[in-house]
Amino acid sequence: MIRSPALRPVAALIALLCSGGAFAEDADVLPTVTVQGASANEGLGLARQNATASRLNLSAQELPASVEALSADTMLARGDLLVKEAVTRTTGLTDISSPGNGVAYSARGFTGSGSIALLENGQRPQVGSGTATYPADPWGYEYIEVLRGPGSIVYGSGTTGATINAVRKAPSRTSSFEAMAGVGGGQALRAGVGATGALGERGAFRIDAYADHSDGFIDRGDARHGKVLTSVNYALTPDLDLDLSLDHLEQKPQRYFGTPLVNGGLSHALRDQNYNVSDADIYFVDDKAVARLSWRYSPALTISNELAYMKARRNWRNVEYYHYDAAANVVERSDYIAIHHDQEQTGNRLEARWIEGANRVVAGWEASTINFKHTNNSPYGGASTVASTGFNPGVFDSPDPLKPNFASDTTSNAFYIEDAYSLTPDLLLLAGVRHDRYQVERVSLLGAAGFTSKLQSNAARLGLAWKLDHATSLYAQVSSGSDPVTSLLSLNLANSRYKLTSSRQAETGVKQSLAGGKAEWTAALYRITKDDIITRDPANAALSIQGGSQSSRGAEVTASVALNQAWRVEANAAYTDAQFDQLIEGGNESRAGNRPADVPKTSANLWLNYRADGWRGALGARYVGERYIDNANRQTLPAYTTFDASLGWSVNRNVLVQLNLRNLANKLYAVTSYSDSQYLLGDRRHAELTVQWRY
Predict the structure, then answer these.
(1) Is the N or C terminus of the chain more exposed, i.e. has fewer CB atoms within 10 Å?
(2) Which residues pair with residue 558 across a beta bridge?
């Protein structure tokens, strides 16, 4: 039997923690919270602390790792409306999202939620059946931070390619209010509000709310999002702080699974067509509650305990596979798929941090339990044929009933320690180790055999940062990590015997600030190897075993240069040479030497920014190189370049009106593939007008 721990008491525990304020009537006022805001020309922010790569209050320049951050001001100035739009403007990150996987990226030759971790304020929702949906939009976040390469010391397995963390805007006792409203192409409407201020004599609150709606530039492409983020911090005593947050998010993404290829290519004639059924449905709901107690035992030692509860509900009901029949000028549809996810996660992190003098140390224990239930209508039968244009989309009509398939309980425990030691004022040694243990217990709800699987992994990081002068650092690091062969929550009997894959990275780089911060640049060289991926048994092609391997090596450059007080240019570029070193698929076919699917060799971003005399403007270009859609490297997604722009006018110190322009050349391009016969297209050219208020 699966153990089903009672997760509902979390709400009661958080309420109990809240009541602690009643016993702190004589406490001092809450310590001042310093928010590092974005300047008009912030550059790369090398002097800013990075919360994603380490827990030791190290700046980006001190860290012997490749990190990057996008501020809320930068995202607003560029008109980024989704987290994935912002993230893929950082170095080497490519969007491979679809309605099936929610949000997914490619980084350093590795792809998907099994290799790129998505976090919200340092909390990581585990991924069920390969689907990640949270966080989705950047409203309410101060920064989006990206750590490239294995980051397992801080956040566990599944981080070989990158770790992405959306850092929340913190409550402040200084009152402020911000709002945004926008209208644009595709019948887009959006609005957001955010407010913060004092709560009694010792506390502060913050609330952010956001909603949007659009038709997605395709037939029946209606999409909408909405969320409320709330947070409170309170000084229970002069040395004991309580932080609480409670969030609710709802999403109904585009019910669009791609456009069929015509003669192997993209067709302008089918650009606006949606071949899904009229009653298709995609619906995601995410809830999260976090309570954190921080005790300053001494000026050097802080002990904290963070309790988190997350719940996700996801629904799909769609026709997902399309093939264009050129002879009959019709589209054949199949895969009538209905799926439902119920996921609950409770986690706790107990941590001690010592920061004094030349030595900074953090050690912690993380524990979590995740209940996951998967309902579907497998084997997904059903088929229909419609005209290529002007057709009746019909309704969802599957011969297969929707019924519970399996349920799993996953428990995890992790222990970690990290030490940053200043060998000299100019030489910093960063070392850390982590051990993770997982137990996955699964039962079939269809009468099949269940199982229990136990997994474990070790990770380590050793890095050295050498400060040549106050503005220039060289660094080198070696690190190791691990990825699951598939989503841990949805392990099946066939892959339950597999262990976690192992990865190793060697990286070196330079970070430099010039002319008093007017110019900043970083560069990195890396090599990553990943072993124990699933391959066919060379002696028996019918059997799958662990024994495959893949690797990547590459170079990344990021720069931000103030040409003068008004103009700034920002650019990044990544070169990735990725391949399978050992992999056998299908009928005993070797993929050795092939590039993994969804991995471009090159990608780049360029922005030219202007800000002066109440005006601000930006012109940007994004380039993504050719990618293969499969490991056999038989079919490619074409490379593409898109251009975006924005123009803003400060009506007064509190009001900004901004025009955002997307895909200026109206490029017809594919963001990613959904099958070998259909690609997901990028949005056509469009504009949006927004008004932003800040008080």
Answers:
(1) N
(2) 522, 572
pLDDT at 139 over 50: yes
Mark 380-389 as b/e (b = at least 16 C-beta within 10 Å): bebebebebe
**CATH no. of 9-694:** 2.40.170.20
**Is 397 strand, coil or helix?**
coil
Q: Could you tell me the pTM of the whole model?
A: 0.91
User: For residue 25, what pLDDT band results from cuts at 50, 70 and 90?
Assistant: very low
- Cα 572 to Cα 569: distance, rounded to the nearest angstrom: 10
Give the per-residue pLDDT at 27. Answer: 34
Local structure of residue 19 (DSSP, 8 states): G
- Are 490 and 374 spatial neighbours (Cβ–Cβ below 8 Å)? yes
- Residue pair 344/7 in contact by the 8 Å Cβ criterion: yes
**Alpha-carbon span 1 to 366, nearest angstrom:** 25
Name residue, tokens 């056998």: 584
User: Which residue's structure tokens are 């997904």?
Assistant: 380
How high is the pLDDT of residue 502?
94
| pLDDT recorded at residue 541 | 80
Neighbour count for residue 287 (Cβ, 10 Å): 16
Does the N-terminal peptide bond of residue 135 adopt cis geometry, omega within 30 degrees of 0?
A: yes
Residue with tokens 């995740």: 370
Residues 6+ apart with CB under 8 A from 157: 436, 457, 459, 481, 482, 483, 484, 500
Is pLDDT above 60 for 278? yes
- Yes or no: say if 159 and 115 are a contact pair by the CB < 8 Å rule: yes
Residue 16 in this model has a pLDDT that exceeds 50: no
pLDDT above 80 (res 552): yes
Backbone torsion region of residue 663, taken as left when φ is above 0, otherwise alpha when ψ lies between -120 and 50, otherwise beta: left
Q: Which two tokens stand for residue 212?
A: 């949007």
Average pLDDT over residues 315-339: 97
CB distance 320 to 257 below 8 Å: yes
Mapped onto helix, strand or coil, the DSSP state of residue 516 is helix
3-state SS assignment for residue 154 = helix
d(CA 576, CA 112): 16
| Mean pLDDT, range 658-683, rounded to an integer | 96
Three-class secondary structure of residue 315 per DSSP: strand
